[in-house]
Amino acid sequence: MPLTIRDLPKEKYVLPGNAACPGCPETMGLRYVGMALGHRAILVIPAGCTSILQGLMPGNGLSFPIINVAFASADAVASGVAAAKRLLGEDAVAVVWAGDGGTADIGFATLSGAAERDEDVIHICVDNEAYMNTGIQRSSQTPLGAWTTTTWRGKREPKKNMPLIMISHGIPYVATASIAYPIDFIEKLRKATSIRGFKYIHLHAPCPTGWRFDPSETVEIARLAIETGLWVLFEAERGRVTISPFSRPYADRSRRKPIVEYLKRQGRFREVTDELVRELEREVDEYWGLLLKLSEQKVQ
Amino acid sequence: MKRLTLTGNHCVAYAVKLSRVKVVPAYPITPQTTMVEKISEMADSGEADIQVIRVESEHSALAAAYGAATAGVRAFTATSSHGLLYMVEMVWWVAHARIPMVMAIVTRTIGPPWNIWTDHHDIMSQRDTGWLIAMAENNQEVLDETIKLFKITEDPDVSLPGMIGLDAFILSHTVEPVEVPDQELVDSFLPERRQPYVIRSGDPLIMGNVPADLLANAKMRWDVHLGLKNAEDVIEKVDEEWGKLTGRYYGGLVECYRCEDADYLFVGAGAWVGDMRIAVDMLRETGLRFGVLKLRYARPFPSRRILEAVSGKRGVLVLDRAVSAGSAGPIFLDLASHIYSARPSVPVKNVVAGLAGYEANYEDFARIGESFAKEVSESGWVSSPLEFYPGR
After folding, report:
1. Is B204 within 8 Å of A65 (Cβ atoms)?
2. ipTM reported for the complex, 2 dp
3. pLDDT value at position B343?
4. What is the reported pLDDT for A1?
5. B139-150: average pLDDT
6. Residue A300 pLDDT more than 80?
């Protein structure tokens, strides 16, 4: 039986009075984490937007146990938490909730170390494609051509492909998700909790503040990323790639919406040229080709 | 009780096992390596019920220890020199989260150039972090103080982490006969782990989000200082208790050797205090009444005990194995500032020696002591309060 919205718990894990911007994708993602993991989750959160949006101490805008930690330490702290809870026999799921910086850049060595050790941890990269909390500076997850406050003429390098890097670690579970597809994300989180070892979920999270779109459009922009094929929902169990149902139609190039429809809705791409659009299209084709090859090869 | 011949590093490993530590994340660095290798061997053979996490860096070593300790179990790690500097961010984090744990620092010179020999710059650079800082003179003290630190750091009046310093190679890799207490004795001494809070699933406690009230935050910072001041009494009490159980009472925060009737005092910390004792005996044979005030803890700084010890002396000679570049030796700086308000009319001189592992032994100390006594008796004070000892 596929999961439906009626099966989801009613309990709220994101409370009124939190400090998120309007239209924030991270609060959406955190709601889904609550729905998926409930009382079992212990969140370890390195520096980032969620450091702020959880509200002011001694208040509390999120209803999870949370350890806020130094930027480059999250997966190591979670390794310690997981080890302690296993020894204490406590039913807990150690979850790192980190941004793209805490995952792919400053946090990368720690993430890679914990993954290689196959720690019993779920790492969620909530990817808003720049350092939003410090004021929209570029990260390795900022896409080619995007404006940030440190790339005024557009970023010159493509987005580093974290899901593929994590697959290369040989960990039991890697998945991508999008805040526009909560059921897909929740199902993946629940599957992750059933697997012992290191799990990595990369959650695409369009940020109205940093990407320059209206806060009412967060979900639409996220959906467009899927429909243009720019972001692909898939799972990789022990390296075996399965394209998730919501992305499957877009394996067929002709069914993808033009990338420019996604770009023109966002102020960060206002200076994108035709040449850049072609380059992004080439990137998308190449990525799909690789993913489909990975899924075919392993399925045989 | 067993009598074994152990290196300082293995003393720490035994202390960790006897203290029933549950999680040890660590990253190797010379000369800490044999400590973690021994703990790993104890864990892999089943001799100790320890989960070793072989992390990819020192920053992660302390982060993982912090995670385990926050989640409710006794945790330990160890490092040295560059490893300690690499984890400094987490050193502050653990203390200000008020999470008790213990870390061993095998004191080693900081590069460049690469240098594995002892000096105290690494551990002394951590004085402001909120950790207790103990310094050992010999391997027995290494073992005893590591066990005691678990009790001291977990005391509800303290609730702060603590580090034990042992000199590279001089203690870490040199064997000495050591009395290893029985597990039953340590069990009767060490209570179940106590900590101010535990992060648990289902209990939505948030540690470390942004403060609404900066005064409340300021009070939290000051409370770390108060926790360290509280530790002064706890250290004395725990040392007395340990002394009753084992016959080894060290004097609490400081230990005095021939202090009472001394005219002059050496003040120092670490392995070379042993050489100071010999120098005292040598100087006394020449008619110069010296004593040693051994600093067992650099944090909390034992200002009251030091003031008592130096009052009425003709001169105090502080030997630092580190220098706060642009100022003076760290022990001297603390000592001078803490005794100043009591206006003791005692000259204090700082000699910085033994940097980068360069030998400074009892003969050097006898020489330094002799010239200090001469300087004080001739001029009634010290002409230059800070000197670098260039060796013989």
Report:
1. yes
2. 0.96
3. 81
4. 67
5. 98
6. no
Contact B307, B339 (CB under 8 A): yes
Residue A290 distance to chain B (closest CA, Å):
30
* Chain pair A-B, CB pairs under 8 angstroms: 170
Q: How far apart are CA B239 and CA B248, in angstroms?
A: 8
**Stronger pLDDT, B342 or B40, i.e. the higher one:** B40
CB atoms within 10 A of CB B392: 9
Name the strand (E) or helix (H) holding B255. Answer: strand B254-257
pLDDT tens digits along A71-97: 999 999 999 999 999 999 999 999 999
pLDDT at A258 over 70: yes
pLDDT band at B392 (very low <50, low <70, confident <90, very high): confident
Tokens for B288, please give them.
């110069």
Which of A3-17, B104-118, B375-389 is modeled with the greatest confidence?
B104-118
Which of B67, B203, B207 lies nearest to residue A78, judging by beta carbons?
Answer: B67
Residues 6+ apart with CB under 8 A from B37: B28
A80 closest CB neighbour out of B23, B59, B205: B23
Question: A59 pLDDT band (50/70/90 cuts)?
Answer: confident
- In this structure, are residues B131 and B95 in contact, taking their beta carbons and an 8 Å threshold? yes
SS (H, E, C) B144-183: HHHHHHHHHHHCCCCCCCEEEEEECCCCCCCCEEEEECCH
Average pLDDT over residues A133-149: 97
| Residue A215 DSSP one-character state | G
Considering chain B, what is the average pLDDT of its residues? 97
How many residues comprise chain B? 392
Determine how β-strand A234-237 pairs with β-strand A173-178. antiparallel
Please tell me the number of Cα atoms within 13 Å of A195 on its side-chain side.
23
Interface test with B, best of A33, A37, A42 (most B CBs within 10 A): A42
B359 and B272 Cβ atoms separated by less than 8 Å:
no
Q: Provide, as residue numbers in chain B, all residues whose Cβ is less than 8 Å from the Cβ of A86.
A: 51
| Structure token digits, residue B176 | 């000495």
Instruction: Report the C-alpha gap between B199 and B215 in whole angstroms.
Output: 25
Q: Domains plus CATH for chain A?
A: 11-299 (3.40.50.970)
In DSSP terms, which residues pair with B291 in a beta bridge?
B265
Beta bridge partners of A48: none
Q: Which two tokens stand for residue A291?
A: 């993913």
User: Mind listing the domains of chain B with CATH numbers?
Assistant: 2-246 (3.40.50.970), 254-388 (3.40.50.920)
What Rg do the C-alpha atoms of chain B give, in angstroms?
21
Residue A299, pLDDT score: 41
Euclidean distance between CA atoms B104 and B166, whole angstroms: 8
Cβ contact A87–B22 (<8 Å) = yes
Distance CA B249, CA B44 (A): 34
Whole-number pLDDT of residue B53: 98
